[in-house]
Amino acid sequence: MATSQMPLFLLVLLALVASTSASPPIHDVLKVFGFPPGLLPDSVESYILCPLEEGFNFTIYLKNTCQVQYTPITTIRFMKEITGQIKVFSITQLKGIQAALQYISGDIYWLNIINIRADDVYLHLTVFEIFLMLVEKEAMASIPTCQDLALDASDSSPKRISQLPVSLRSRCYVGDGSVERVV
């Protein structure tokens, strides 16, 4: 998004906040950026959205590591913490989301998705900066239930918003899986 468009986007985000008296659910935020709400599962506990010159840095906390099978050939794994940068139709520097790649032998490999770009019909998932998966946006039109995985047994619980430095909280939009406040 061009710098000149940033004030317009902030007005849209603030209108969402004002209409709910709190920060909007993360799935509504995704729609503002041109992504389907089902890109993230129902297990989001909280999120932080911090403005940049162009777009926003984000951190999303899920209840557990989990996975969703969107189509017969598209399975996505979500870690407990997902980070990246988002602007209209683009998510970059993504960490915490993986796609399953199944070989003819039946072996499944989990590959990190590093970028997601949206157009009118598809989400373009970039893996290793060379491999691209196309997923129809319609497959992610509704918010899926995430199947919990016991991968992070040694992981501590996600950082709570109250543990963030006050200076960081005051510049960011903070929300939970449904509705929370703006700090």
What does this structure look like?
By secondary structure, the chain is mainly beta. The chain has three helices and ten strands. The protein has helices spanning 6-20, 26-32, 166-169, and strands at 44-51, 56-62, 66-71, 74-87, 90-102, 108-118, 122-127, 131-136, 147-148, 173-176. Strands 1, 2, 3, 4, 5, 6, 7, 8, 9 and 10 form a ten-stranded antiparallel sheet that branches. The longest helix has 15 residues, at 6-20.
Keywords:
single chain; 183 residues; mainly beta; at5g01610, DUF538 DOMAIN; 10-stranded antiparallel beta sheet; 3 helices; 10 strands; disordered C terminus; At5g01610-like; DUF538; signal
Look at the structure and give the CATH class: Mainly Beta
**CATH hierarchy: architecture:** Roll
Mean pLDDT: 78
Helices, by number, come to 3
Order of helices and strands: HHEEEEEEEEEHE
Summarize the biggest pleated sheet. Answer: 10 strands, antiparallel
CATH topology grouping:
at5g01610, DUF538 DOMAIN
The first-to-last residue Cα distance is 24 Å
**Proportion in β-strands:** 35-45%
How many domains? The number is: 1
Q: Please provide the count of β strands.
A: 10
Please state the CA-atom Rg, rounded to the nearest Å.
16 Å
The helical percent reads: 10-25%
- Name the poorly predicted regions: 17-21, 152-170, 179-183
* Mass-distribution shape: globular
- Helix-and-strand structural type: mainly beta
